[in-house]
Amino acid sequence: MKQYFLLTIIFIPSVLYAQSLSDLYKKVSPSVVVIETKEKTENTYGHASYMGSKGSGVLISDQGEILTAAHVVNNAESITVIFHDGQRVPAKVVRLAVVADVALIKLIYFNGNYPVIELGNSDLTDVGDDIFIIGAPFGIEYSLSKGIISGIGVRQSRMADFTFAEFFQTDAAINHGNSGGPMFNMKGEVIGLVSYIVSESGGFDGIGFAATINMTKQLVIDSDRKWTGINGILVDQELARLLNIPQSSGLLIESVVALSPAFMADLRGGNIPLHLNGQKLNIGGDIILEVNDIPIVSENSIIELIKSVSLMDEKERNSFKLKILRAGKVQEVILKFLNE
């Protein structure tokens, strides 16, 4: 009898935990979505082709707003959200923060038939806490993986007291297609968005990262930042010399999403592939030198720009003066944003 009692004490917690995780999955999974995108690419001859990809996301409002990873939607010509019952709804980007890899998209129409997820407080999460992730790894939709918080990391500017991003490290399995999917605590609250993995094999090696939900709120939910449709990179001094940029740096535009504000301003991406120091770039497009007379020469100049924009009123934020380098000539372009 004593042996039976001890076995009962030992095994009951694991059974209750399994039931709890199963119940949580059933509760929260209807708020998780699959995101299909199509991205346009051009070769050096100007011939266009379209590439499809898949990621994940989570419904956060009864207005049809969805959180996902920035790299899932940043270059997308079209975005389609797929719910657990198979309903497909087109969506558009509202805002995103590439450096933190988080984005807010919105359904073109929403009937309100799906539950909105609850967002947690990621500041209350500690290393060692249990978590689980729902996503579509390798296209396997609504797949569940579980693990723990292995670490917490913050990316800050090297020369300014400015936080760009905050990430959870986890050992929960993350693979292609999980990107943008929600990370949950054991209350069923979203505490992070799956971002990327560190891998030598090309698959999951036990080190994955998710942007914290509190940083996500700050950057794309509570913020009024604009989506430009630009995919670009801040060039270093070596590349600036190679491209004959008349200053120490600039923002190289690699691609522009069709019908985005940047596209309407006639900003142009590149179509000439360049491999430099192990990095693949598309050159030949415009290079942004200044925004509203602020030179884009370093990470800190971008921080200065962000701070100046935060002091503008809504009307001022609808139009920006850009100085660009195009085909060796400096030009001015006005980047405009339409009110929603």
TrEMBL record:
Any single GO BP term: proteolysis
InterPro entries in the cross-refs: Chloro_Bact_Ser_Proteases (IPR051201), PDZ_sf (IPR036034), Peptidase_S1_PA (IPR009003), Peptidase_S1C (IPR001940)
MF-aspect GO terms: serine-type endopeptidase activity
Superkingdom to which the source organism belongs: Bacteria
One Pfam family in the UniProt entry: Trypsin_2
Keywords, alphabetical: Hydrolase, Protease
Gene3D superfamilies: 2.30.42.10, 2.40.10.120
The name this protein goes by in its record: Serine protease Do
